[in-house]
Each structure stands twice: as structure tokens, then as C-alpha cells.
Amino acid sequence: MKTPWFYGWNVLGVGMMSMAMTMGVVFSAFSFFAVAWMDAFGTSRGETLLIMSVAQLVTGLMYPFTGRAMDRSSLRWIGAAGILCLAAGLLVSSFTTALWQLMVIYALVMAGANALAGALYSQTVAARWFRGRRGLALGLSSIGSSIGALVFPLLVSTLLGVMDWRQTMQLLALVIPLIAVPLMLLVIADSPEQKGIEPDPDVAQPRVDGEPAWSTRMILRERYFWAMLIALVPIVVTPVALTGNLAPYAQDLDISAQAAGGLMSIWALCNILGKVSFGYLADRIEQRLLYLLALFPSVAALLLLLLAPSYLTLLLAMIALGLGSGGYLPLIGMMISRHFGVLAYGAVVGLFLMCTRATVLAPPGAGWVRDHFGSYDYFWIGVLVLFAVCAPAIIFVRDRTRGS
């Protein structure tokens, strides 16, 4: 049945909401809870922030399993399970009496919520529902993390101003599933065929019937997978390192905390613009050219940071980096869906995200370089060298459509 409004946009919106809620609560609002925990439990900054690193690493280890589950099971129930994990994690965390308890909860329950209902979920939903406009859909779906970063830090900081952190977590544990779970159960479907409607009408790519069944062993033995991974690593490292060190880096330049916060907001807005733009372009240009369009702003940002550092150069670097790094998720999505098809999409993205999870060490690595050498410059130079070594791998990422 053909309708004027493509139902896939409804499904995409719910996927974005899930990503915004999950990543917004687990990661974007984390630092506000961390300050409250340091006061409550008398722990150091390093001890408390370790919770975040552990949660990110465990999430990466879970991705191959949750990705494979998304390829084989109902997306509706997987997403609902992730949101319920998030609610359970918030509720149990509100009753903790020691930091180690929070470490366990975030490493198991909150990491599970992110792996089930976060970025991988939103991207898989988009890949399943869109063909001709898949690049645009992947770009829009990835905005969920940016929306979460804009909404939940402000929401949590506001709530912490009128109630304590335990009550804040309990309130979120109640409200989030009441909003998200009914929408998931009512709206989400695995494919247009399941809803009895025609697929995305603007089919720009030919569909190939009989997609190959990609096992984990086959994926890991595929040269395309490793070429894509190697080429994209520097684009992942650069924004993770800079945004993770923005406050102390700004402090080194005598930039106020308020101004640094403004720079982060500018980066988030440019990141949204980058995601939409790269998503739009992904349906129209060859993916290796798209990679270069993401690479050049990231390299430009690093070169700006190596110039005489100032507020202006940092502002320009954040704008360039926001635009360039915005292409990361749409680019991954298109590369994977074109080569591996949509039936193995969750499994391949899950393995990819697991393999790149080590990039969470970039922020402390950059901080270590600053502490030992008195400047971040050596780290930025190291990332430029990484670009020079890794970028040529994109030659082996050939643009072809398999089961798209």
C-alpha cells in the first residue's frame, strides 16, 4: 500500500528518540551526576570518571552480540528492552551507597541499555527502512546523540538544582520508559514489508535479491571491513580527544568555562549540520569522495590547533571539527549497507563499533601528553601522522551495492 507520508519517517523519529534518551542520560549528562557522586561518596575525580570509561568499553564489547540480535530479532522488543534497562539502571543507581556499586551498574546495566537502544539501534532502524534515501536517513538518525547532548545535560543540571541526584534518577527512571516504550511498541516495525507498505519510494540504488549471509568469521576476514576501519579511525580519534579535553585546553588558553561551554554548543550544532549534510550527500556521491570531505575539515582543525592558539583558532577548529566529524556515522552506515547489505547491518556495525572502542582512551592519552610535555601539540601532531598512515586505506573501500 502506498501512502503520501512514508511511514519510515515515523520509525526513524522513534529511533532518534531512543538514541537521544539513552546516550543523553548515560553519557552526555554523566558529568553532572559525577559531581554529585564525588560529594556524596568523597571520591576523587579520576575514580569517578573511570565509570564512564568502563561503561564505554563494555558497551563496545556488547555491540557484536546486540548487533547480531538486531539482525535476527524484533527491533520493537530490542529497543523496548534497552529503554527498560536504562530505567532499571537509573532506579538501582539511586539506591547505591558506594562508588563501586555505580561502577558495576554502569558496566552491566547502563552499558547494556546503550548497546540495545543507542546509536547501533537507531542506525539499524534507518538502514532497514530506507533504500534510496538511506544516506539521508542515516544522517538524520545519528542526530539523536546530538539532541541528547543538547537536552539531557540541561535537563539533569536543572533537576539537580531543585532535588538531589537520587530523586533526579528516580524521576528519569519513571518518565523515560513511560514515554519511550509505548512509542516503540506502537510505531517500530522491522521493515516496510512487515507493515504491508511499499519501501522508500526514491530508490536510487538497485536492490539485489538473495543477500549473502555474513557470519562473524566472514566479516572479520573481509578486506573491505578492515580497510574501512583503518581509514576511519583518525576521524573518530580527533573529536573524541578534543571534546574530552576542551575544558582544560581552554583553561590553558585563559578561556573562561562559560566560553568553553559555548564552544561545545557550537561544535554540537555544527555536528548536527554535518550529519544532515553528509547524509544527503551519501545518496548522491561516491563514498571515497565523501570520506575526503570528512577528512579535510578534521585535518584543518588539527592544523588550526597547532597554530598560535587563541579563542579564534579554537572556535574555527571546533566549527571545522563539528562539520567533519558529523559525517562519521552516515559514512559508516552507507559503507556497510552498500557492501554487506541490510540483513547483516547490525552485526557489521556492532563489530565495527567494538573495534573502534579503544578510541575512548584518546582523551586521557591527550591529557597525559599535556601533563608530561606541557602542551597538546605533540598529540595533535601524532593524530596528523595517524591520518597520513591510515587514510590511504580508503583506496580499498570500493563503492558498490550489495543488497541495498
Describe the structure concisely for a colleague.
The protein is mostly helical and 404 residues long. 77% of the residues lie in helices and 0% in strands.
Describe the structure.
- The protein has 404 residues and is an all-alpha fold.
- It folds into two domains: 8-195, MFS general substrate transporter like domains (Growth Hormone, Chain: A, Up-down Bundle), CATH 1.20.1250; 216-396, MFS general substrate transporter like domains (Growth Hormone, Chain: A, Up-down Bundle), CATH 1.20.1250.
- Helices cover 77% and strands 0% of the residues.
- It is built from 20 helices and no strands.
- Helix 6 packs antiparallel against helix 7.
- It is globular and about 55 Å long.
- It starts with 7 loop residues before the first helix and ends in a 14-residue tail after the last helix.
Integer average pLDDT = 85
- How many domains comprise the coordinates? 2
Number of strands: 0
* Low-pLDDT regions: 203-209
CATH architecture of the largest domain: Up-down Bundle
CATH superfamily of the largest domain: MFS general substrate transporter like domains
Instruction: Indicate the overall shape.
Output: globular
Give structural attributes:
404 residues, mainly alpha, Growth Hormone, Chain: A, 77% helix, globular
Which helices and strands occur, and which strands form pairs?
Blueprint: H1 8-28, H2 30-41, H3 45-72, H4 75-93, H5 99-117, H6 119-129, H7 134-141, H8 143-162, H9 165-187, H10 192-195, H11 216-220, H12 223-244, H13 246-252, H14 257-282, H15 287-306, H16 311-325, H17 328-340, H18 345-355, H19 362-373, H20 377-390
